[in-house]
Specification:
With 117 residues, this protein is mainly alpha-helical. The protein has four helices and two strands; from the N terminus they run H-H-H-E-H-E. Helix 4 links the parallel strand 1 and strand 2.
Length: 117
């Protein structure tokens, strides 16, 4: 995806095809597709197995955002490896890269916001 024209990076079919073989290429998708739930699931970043873990322990990843064009793909590659690991894949894991970062509430980042506590 990195080497194709911007209008193709906004084409969901092109993005889905690219992430089939190279999931970390999702960081080069444009038009919001790098955070699109269907694309995240298809790439394996948002692993549906995590919804039904076999272990009760939970894991929270503290990682930099890795789905922006200028980001390192390391966090994405780590999550993909973790999800496919026989042992580590058993845990319910929170990966902040797999969830929407926007809010229509301008006070969302305010520590006094009622949803932050």
């Amino acid at each position: 995806l990195r080497c194709i024209s911007p209008n193709l990076r906004e084409d969901k079919q092109v993005v889905m095809k690219a992430i089939t073989t190279t999931p970390e290429a999702l960081q080069f998708a444009q038009g919001g597709l790098n955070q699109d739930p269907e694309c995240l699931k298809h790439s394996g970043i948002w692993d549906l197995k995590q919804m039904m873990p076999t272990r009760s322990e939970k894991v929270t990843l503290s990682v930099k955002f890795s789905l922006a064009e200028g980001s390192s793909p390391y966090a994405t590659m780590f999550v993909l490896a973790m999800n496919s690991d026989n042992f580590l894949g058993q845990f319910r894991t929170y990966n902040p890269n797999a969830y929407e970062k926007d809010s229509c509430d301008p006070a969302f980042t305010d520590f006094k916001h009622p949803c932050r506590g």
